[in-house]
Amino acid sequence: MDNTWRVGFNPLTWYMTPAGWDRAAAPPLPEVYRQIRAAGFGAVHAEVPDSMSVPAYQALLADTGLAPAPGYFQARFSDPAAAREAVENGRRAAAEHTALGLSRIFIADQFGAEPRIAAPAQGTAFDEGRLAAVIDHLGAVAEAMVAEGVTPCLHQHVGTWIETPQETEAVLAAISPDLLLFGPDTGHLAWAGADPAAIIETHLDRVGAVHLKDVRAAVRGEAQASGQDYRETTARHVFTE
Fold it and tell me: How far is 240 from 228, CA to CA, in rounded Å?
């Protein structure tokens, strides 16, 4: 286990608007990175743009004074038709991380499971067969990533088919730690009703990377009581520093 920890910043805040996710709403990437560095962070969530080569991205990091921190890979692991493409895309993402000198990457089920967008953080529409397919296909991608020198870290996320503590535990139990570490998100765990500290302590030797954020408990409770969906709840700033 690599015990060298690096605190990085995920620039999601530049892309989130009242209308949803919009990369075009953000300043140019060099300006975003300079702002992150000016705020006191020495690393950033790694994401090589489609329009940029790995060497060009490394030059951007050097120019803005930032180091790379583990990035993020997601795929529709519940869809057998997308399995082969997911493996190849995962392999490519891992190869980019290796070139950047990283040994970890977050891996998550594709965000946007509609029943769970409509009724978030409740394990809506659970299906044992679907979860088995998710585990099978995620495991195949994990194996491809490890072959490239990067170990994926399971990232549970509200609005996906790996949302609840029970689903998270099932995936970790089914896939070997040699292929899959744990990359918990403290905010998404708390929103789904879990105790993040307790889950992290349980799997402490398996934690390879962490997304750190908090939730506003009052917003979470009010949103669930009134039946607000994912977008309405996040627009009310359920997440906070």
Answer: 18
The answer for residues whose C-beta is within 8 angstroms of residue 185's C-beta and 6 or more apart is 155, 156, 157, 210, 211, 213
* Of residues 83, 86, 135, 76, the one with CA closest to residue 109: 76
Selection from 89, 148, 104 nearest residue 1 by Cα: 104
| Residue 140 half-sphere exposure toward CB, CA atoms < 13 A | 18
Count of H helices and E strands in the chain? 10, 11
pLDDT (tens digit per residue) in 165-182: 999 999 999 999 999 999
213 SS3 class: coil
pLDDT, tens digit, for every residue of 59-118?
A: 999 999 999 999 999 999 999 999 999 999 999 999 999 999 999 999 999 999 999 999
**Residue 190 in tokens:** 């708390």
Q: What are phi and psi of 156, to 5 degrees?
A: -75, 150
